[in-house]
Amino acid sequence: QATKLLHRxxxxxxxxKPLGEMDPDExxxxxxxxxxxxxxxxxxxxxxxxxxxxxxELPRETQKEILSNVxxxxxxxxxxxxxxxxxxxxxxxSPEVVALSLDMSVQQAIDVLRxxxxxxxxxxxxxxxxxxxxxxxxxxxxxIALAQPETRLSSLVEIDVISVPVEADAEEVALLFDKxxxxxxxxxxxxxxxxxxxxxxxxxxxxxxxxxxxxYGMASVPMNESVDTSWFSSLRMRLPWLYVxxxxxxxxxxxxxxxxxxxxxxxxxxxxxxxxxxxGGSTGMQTITII
Length: 291
Fold this sequence. Notes:
single chain, mainly alpha, Annexin V, domain 1, three-stranded mixed sheet
């Protein structure tokens, strides 16, 4: 049913957007069920960062086949993004960023924003660069829109711009967004050249994955397990942790058995065993939650 719906969206040239909003593994599964020609055309209409997330879920041979049939310029952009680890700033960024020269007037900047509006990841923020594409500052759409047409961007730019290196860990990027309430963040290389932009929608996915990983870890559940996982696979993945828990439980039982005679003499100690175990478990859970 989902494949039929995607096919109808493809006929209306509207399939790229919903695929980009879905989980990459689900998008890849749907794309694999389509005709290869349809899949290539849909991928070509997707934002580069979304296309990369989807391609990473496909076999390497399928990636090469699809990219060989995509426009060469688009294929080059996607191939470059595929070289970055998925859990890095490079893996999160979109290269579709608006870069402006400080020599431009406000009117010239507005003309560029109008031209790039459809393909750019966002136009709410633009970045000032020099002739070598080195990052020099950030410009907000609000400041540009409110300024006089003849005003130079050099008088509007904010030079104290926070950026992230392309190799930065995705979790570090998420912490920056959380700390400074960013909407977007520029990505640079070692020469401080502007490579792309990370927006909050991509970071929210990272935050959700990190939170899910933490919760799964607290319960000793493998990250690749879900409600759709077969009972046999769930059993196979959970058994190692269950064996560890069983070993610690047996160890606790042996400690209790060591003091069996003392417990037999003082019956109140038997009552306190449950209280101590419960309090210990609650304290441990509170500590894990805070950490």
